[in-house]
Amino acid sequence: xxxxxxxxxxxxxxxxxxxxxxxxxxxxxxxxxxxxxxxxxxxxxxxxxxxxxxxxxxxxxxxxxxxxxxxxxxxxxxxxxxxxxxxxxxxxxxxxxxxxxxxxxxxxxxxxxxxxxxxxxxxx
Length: 124
Prior knowledge:
Distance between the termini: 35 Å
Strand content: 5-15%
Largest sheet: 2 strands, antiparallel
Structural class: mainly alpha
Low-confidence stretches: 18-22
Helix content: 40-55%
Order of helices and strands: HEEH
Strand order of the largest sheet: 1-2
């Protein structure tokens, strides 16, 4: 805090208008008590994290079903062999690459969709 500023004259936050990507509660949200806003934002984050966890769990169960698929092959000798269709190492490496790129892809999608589907700086 600046030494010339009195403790009661703390700086206040201002809300920019027109730059909100997803306005849920409108301008009157600024009138809510900070404790209520913090609790609602915290509950919202927990709700979203729970949803992402459930979706990721369902996705991983599907990947396990796909990568555990086996095929029976009969050799010319008459021996029947069981062969995995998917290599588990390749499947895991592919998922790791997708998971590490997902945040960058999502940020690019948010940017392009909030910029009227025009790439680059927004000229208003």
